[in-house]
């Protein structure tokens, strides 16, 4: 496309110029939660590796995984995965060409935020 | 002046220079993960906090082992591709290449480590 991209086009203002709105907040949160999940995955896989290795190794990994730090990482990851999950479903819905009008998009954004918290609480209650 | 049709010029392009394949792969893996993740969260959440014997028994049995293996492979591919998109958005040149290579390796190392642990518990 190099031969058609000669004219100096106006640039759109970057994120910090806009007033925060639900659709943009829920969009960037999708990316943040998706990448932050790597912390929970690393801790979980390390814990599995320790369980597969030896009693003494498991004692160390399990102590970390069930400490306040482990609780923080896994609880945060649980919310992150549910948020990313709902936002991903919303992405599939958007990809089908639906829900793109502003009132619906805002409702879907709130559904992701509230739904992720509700699902996190339900999951914690289920697995306790 | 290049004698080339607009269609030909657009083919195989897009922001990352390889069209829509990446997007389609993310769509396919996201649908797969939509089925895997809720069940896995329950299995993992139940096992977390239990004794080593109970954890090994859980992840050594067929359903949790296969589920976790699928989650690791599909999930880590999904992660590597998503991270690649983010890097393509924010980094340029050599930094972009190095970061993409790094997250790709990281994703494979995590998946391989998890699969090794599963194999050891199941076999």
UniProtKB/TrEMBL annotation, chain A:
Keywords: Heme, Iron, Membrane, Metal-binding, Transmembrane, Transmembrane helix
Transmembrane segments: 28-50, 57-82, 108-127
Predominant localisation class: membrane
Gene3D superfamilies tied to this protein: Fumarate reductase/succinate dehydrogenase, transmembrane subunit
Domain of life: Bacteria
Cofactor(s) named in the record: heme
Pfam families: Sdh_cyt
Membrane topology term: Multi-pass membrane protein
Keyword Heme belongs to the record: yes
Compartments (UniProt record): Membrane
Quaternary structure, from the entry: Part of an enzyme complex containing four subunits: a flavoprotein, an iron-sulfur protein, plus two membrane-anchoring proteins, SdhC and SdhD. The complex can form homotrimers.
Function: Membrane-anchoring subunit of succinate dehydrogenase (SDH).
Matching PANTHER family: SUCCINATE DEHYDROGENASE CYTOCHROME B560 SUBUNIT (PTHR10978), SUCCINATE DEHYDROGENASE CYTOCHROME B560 SUBUNIT, MITOCHONDRIAL (PTHR10978:SF5)
Similarity remark: Belongs to the cytochrome b560 family.
Protein name: Succinate dehydrogenase cytochrome b556 subunit
The species this protein was found in: Rhodobacter calidifons
Gene name, Swiss-Prot/TrEMBL: sdhC
From TrEMBL, chain B:
Transmembrane region(s): 23-43, 63-87, 99-119
Subunit structure: Part of an enzyme complex containing four subunits: a flavoprotein, an iron-sulfur protein, plus two membrane-anchoring proteins, SdhC and SdhD.
Keyword Iron assigned: yes
Annotated keywords: Electron transport, Heme, Iron, Membrane, Metal-binding, Transmembrane, Transmembrane helix, Transport, Tricarboxylic acid cycle
Cofactor: heme
Keyword Transport part of the UniProt annotation: yes
Gene of this entry: sdhD
Membrane topology designation: Multi-pass membrane protein
Protein's cellular compartments: Membrane
Pfam families in UniProt: Sdh_cyt (PF01127)
Pathway(s) served: Carbohydrate metabolism; tricarboxylic acid cycle
NCBIfam families for this protein: succ_dehyd_anc
Chain's role: Membrane-anchoring subunit of succinate dehydrogenase (SDH).
Protein name (database record): Succinate dehydrogenase hydrophobic membrane anchor subunit
């Amino acid at each position: 496309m190099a031969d058609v991209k000669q004219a100096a086009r106006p640039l759109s203002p970057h994120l910090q110029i806009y007033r925060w709105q639900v659709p943009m907040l829920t969009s960037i949160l999708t990316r943040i939660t998706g990448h932050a999940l790597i912390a929970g995955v690393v801790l979980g896989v390390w814990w599995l590796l320790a369980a597969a290795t030896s009693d003494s190794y498991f004692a160390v990994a399990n102590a970390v995984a069930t400490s306040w730090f482990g609780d923080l990482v896994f609880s945060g990851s649980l919310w992150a995965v549910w948020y990313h999950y709902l936002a991903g479903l919303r992405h599939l819905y958007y990809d089908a060409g639906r829900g793109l009008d502003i009132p619906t998009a805002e409702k879907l954004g709130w559904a992701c935020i509230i739904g992720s918290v509700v699902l996190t609480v339900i999951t914690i209650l289920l697995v306790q | 002046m290049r004698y080339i049709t607009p269609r030909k010029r657009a083919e195989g392009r897009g922001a990352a220079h390889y069209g829509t394949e990446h997007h389609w792969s993310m769509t396919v893996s996201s649908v797969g993960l939509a089925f895997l993740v809720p069940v896995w969260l329950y299995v993992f959440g139940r096992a977390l906090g239990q004794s080593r014997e109970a954890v090994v028994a859980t992840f050594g049995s067929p359903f949790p082992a296969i589920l976790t293996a699928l989650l690791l492979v599909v999930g880590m591919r999904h992660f590597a591709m998503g991270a690649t998109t983010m890097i393509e958005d924010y980094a340029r040149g050599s930094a972009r290449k190095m970061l993409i290579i790094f997250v790709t390796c990281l994703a494979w190392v995590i998946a391989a480590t998890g699969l090794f642990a599963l194999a050891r518990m199941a076999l």
